[in-house]
Amino acid sequence: MYNILLGGAAGDGIETMSALLEKILKQSGCHLFTIRDFMSRVRGGHNFTQIRFGNIPLAAHRDALDGLFAIDETTYKEHCHQLSSDGFILCDDSLIIDDDRVIRLPLKEAAKKIGNPKVISSVAIGSLLKLFDFSLTPAADIFKTNLRADLVAVNLSALEKGYSLVKPRFNFDPVQTSDQILLSGNTAIGLGALASGLKFYSAYPMSPSTTLLDFFYVHGNKMNVAVEQAEDEIAAINMAIGASYAGAPAMTGTSGGGFSLMVEALGFTGIAEIPLVVVDVQRPGPATGFPTRTEQSDLNFVISASQGEFPRMVIALRDHADCFYQTARSFALAKKYQMPVILLSDQYLADSTTTLPILNTNDIVTYSPEPDALPEKECYRRYALTASGISPLRIPGKTEALVRVDSDEHDEFGQITESASLRNQMVEKRMHKLDLLKDELIEPEFYGYKHCQSLLLGFGSTSGAIKEAVDILNADVKNYGALLFGDIYPLPMNQLKYYAAQVVEIINVEQNATGQLAALIRQEALICCNNSILKYDGRQLSVDDILSGIKNMKGGF
Amino acid sequence: MNKTAFTNSETAWCPGCGNYSILETLTGVLNEMETPPSQIVLVGGIGQAAKTNQYISANGFSGLHGRALPAAVAIKIVNDDLTVIVNTGDGDSYGEGGNHFIHNIRRNVDITHFVHDNQIYGLTKGQPSPTSDPCDLDHITDACNMSASFNPLLIAIATGATFVARAFSGDQEHLAKIMHAAINHKGYALVDILQPCVSFNKKNTFAYYKQRVKPLDDSYDPANKLAAMEKAMEFGDTIPIGILYQQQLPTYKEKRSELFDTMPLIDKKVRLEDVQALIKSYI
């Protein structure tokens, strides 16, 4: 297993180079997990991608590096402390880096001689592949299928030149990866929404949710999805609500700042009982915060956002497979319970790419209501008081029934009411849906040693790192387990109560400053965590952060 | 068409409110159309005017204050078979919903927007609205604008609206004619309907409007944009009513021929095989 970092200024082409290199590594028989760390600017600064590759599936990044490809000296200065003693720094021979591990190559000169200075990254890819002793064939294939036709030849020359400049240093046992896909978290959310029949997506561009809007722009027409860039997030969610009322599975996506603007309309979906999926791709707040970085600090906010009381569900996405399958499930739940479902992702998951088994549209959760025999036309009551609290849903224009929805408190027909008894009935009807929902919550995934004494708790995108940390800890002393929450509100509590009764200590591991998961668990389950590992610097908790957190807690392990 | 398909019911409006004649006129117009109630969606925001859809037997969407337009355009985008008509007030449309007003004009989705403009906030009891008259600094009343008055028609024309009209609740025959034309217009149609607020607007009364409104004469050319902008600025001793500006430009749907055809978007089948093929493109 290896870990390399490619760094440079914004505009240096690191992202393009990384995307090509990832595809080549996958084609060469590697599993991958790549994180993207970039600044909120178009040119300059310091951006990097960190590509971890191995012959087993990977679910998180690590801090220690085997190699650095440095476009500039800043990359070296920022990351040399992560580089292992036998690691390398690959760079152009014009860079001034005083380190025994440096491999200086005439990259710029080679590119210039080939006739296009921009092919420097292909020279570097050639050298990197040789260092790990990969063949050139997969790279040539990827270049041919991914580059503009007139640029293939010059890049292939660059690739071969780079390959000839170094000798192999590492070796790698490839595995079969042709049954794997390589994609980002936001792409997986987009695919999950398409698989569940999305017809309308509206959003206002906001990092790190924007790539979801971009995805739908690219694929919307072919997939029969109307995609609208709204004038603001208030419009974005109200559009999605309108589309859903008219019978279109609808979604809107944003980050915390945009979600703040959507809050009133979230309550509207609650009282009007309109199915809606809202994606909050979290970034550090408050206000503008860190636009391009990561955090899990919107949990408290999304579970309580909007005035009044209404049922909602919140699902934290743990990995790229969750991004697909749970997004699809959220559409089914929103439709079944006629309420908002909020998906919590974050920049780490949104922008990271990984290899995973081919997602299958046949494996998604769907919901098709039982056909009911309610009278149509005048007798249709959009908010009919039923035992379940769920009223039959009709689509305006598709029957002779008139479908009336209202943000005011209303009677069964959707007409405004000020009646105290109707108010009670409607509140109870809506809240009863949560009781039904509780029966189909998915318990958190347990990972680790069944008879553990120490239990780690996490939710969402930190799951991969927590699992890997548990494996490492248990290799030493078989003592650790973890509960990893996907469904998080309402909070599933069976597994939690079972393990809490068994263990000696509970440690919440969260990407926020206040321990929001621990607070939710205290509130809902009356269970207190004994210790916490919290990180809120905008950089994702790594396996290493968790290990050192536990070590510092215990004074060594 | 059954002439009583659209009926109206008891309202929460003040006796003498201009909304009554708008409701009556709209119900009449709907009954004259071929479209049945199940194919009409009446959308409102919040406010006294926005309650209009509560009183007409058609599909109804009573949304949030200021947010009627985003919902309305989305309803039309996903199901083009529906006739979508928004009824809201001046505060809802131009105040709370100002941003949506501007940008939905630009979208030119084929919906109709009736603004019941009484130049005041009625439901909250008498605060100035964006369209309230400017204050006379020697005689400041409760409901005048210390800020400049908002001219919705001028802004609509400037922003690229394809149908811009003004009407008066007190001239129902004229109002009905304008409503028909607006509903039949392909694209976003704005009708600013002047109406008295009997409880709170003591200046812009029924008599005030009655004396001033003057239908555009037959020689007026609604295709002349500059003339229309000049006309939109007339609001004093004479207030012109009628279609100030109309132009046929591609609608939201017409500009997106790859996505829209004769079948409404909601009726299009989900092709899971296409989604699966897209997933496999990431191999």
From TrEMBL, chain A:
CDD domains: TPP_PYR_PFOR_IOR-alpha_like. The keyword Nucleotidyltransferase does not apply. Residues 10-163 form the Pyruvate/ketoisovalerate oxidoreductase catalytic domain. The keyword Oxidoreductase applies. Residues 455-546 form the Pyruvate:ferredoxin oxidoreductase core domain. Gene3D superfamilies: 3.40.50.920, 3.40.50.970, Pyruvate-ferredoxin oxidoreductase, PFOR, domain III. Keywords: Oxidoreductase. Residues 192-428 form the Pyruvate flavodoxin/ferredoxin oxidoreductase pyrimidine binding domain. NCBIfam families: OAFO_sf. This is 2-oxoacid:acceptor oxidoreductase subunit alpha. It comes from Acetobacterium tundrae. The lineage of its organism: Bacteria, Bacillati, Bacillota, Clostridia, Eubacteriales.
TrEMBL record, chain B:
It comes from the Bacteria. SUPFAM superfamilies: Thiamin diphosphate-binding fold (THDP-binding). Residues 50-193 form the Thiamine pyrophosphate enzyme TPP-binding domain. The keyword Oxidoreductase applies. Signal peptide: none annotated. It holds the Pfam family PFO_beta_C. Its cofactor is [4Fe-4S] cluster; Mg(2+); thiamine diphosphate. Residues 197-258 form the Pyruvate ferredoxin oxidoreductase beta subunit C-terminal domain. InterPro entries: 2-oxoacid:Fd_oxidoreductase, OFOB, PFO_beta_C, THDP-binding, TPP_enzyme_TPP-bd. Keywords: Iron, Iron-sulfur, Magnesium, Metal-binding, Oxidoreductase, Thiamine pyrophosphate. Transmembrane segments: none annotated. NCBIfam families: PorB_KorB. This is 2-oxoacid ferredoxin oxidoreductase. It comes from Acetobacterium tundrae.
